[in-house]
Write a structure and sequence with these properties.
By secondary structure, the chain is mainly α. Helix content is 64%, strand content 0%. It is built from 9 helices and no strands. α1 packs across α2 and α4 packs parallel to α7. The N and C termini lie far apart (35 Å).
Length: 142
């Protein structure tokens, strides 16, 4: 029906207004977190660098790592970037320069020993490299 607003559209508009988000950010938080979006945004705003994008030009921010580890119990970067967010799918190789910092943050949040930091980063690096689609593979996918 013309003129009828979907609940998700309303949530996007409300998030943008309440939290001074751009449309892409508001849409991301609405789609990713639904009714918990306000809580996630509150945590992000209370976290140092929490509203900074992990990868430039993407709406996924550093504070979401805190939420996903604390509330959704992600234990690895593969879990966080592949299963719980679209970070890997949206960024691909652009994620690689951020893996060490992501691993340190996750290790801190999970109280992992410092020796686990490199393991987390390496596991995600291996995943990114193993799942690349190059020109040869792309022709077979199409």
């Amino acid at each position: 029906m013309p003129g009828k607003t979907r609940p998700l559209d309303t949530l996007v508009r409300l998030l943008a207004e309440r939290h001074a988000l751009d449309p892409a950010q508001a849409r991301h938080f609405a789609w990713q977190y639904g009714s918990e979006a306000d809580q996630v945004l509150a945590l992000c705003k209370d976290t140092p660098r929490g509203m900074e994008p992990i990868v430039a030009d993407l709406p996924i921010v550093w504070g979401e790592v805190d939420w996903i580890v604390r509330e959704e119990m992600a234990l690895t970067l593969v879990d966080l970037a592949v299963r719980r967010t679209q970070l890997y799918y949206l960024s691909g190789d652009k994620l690689l320069p951020h893996l060490d910092e992501l691993a340190r943050k996750m290790a801190d949040l999970c109280a992992y020993p410092s020796s686990r930091v490199q393991e987390l980063a390496d596991e995600m690096r291996t995943y990114v490299i193993a799942h690349r689609v190059g020109p040869q593979e792309a022709r077979h996918v199409a």
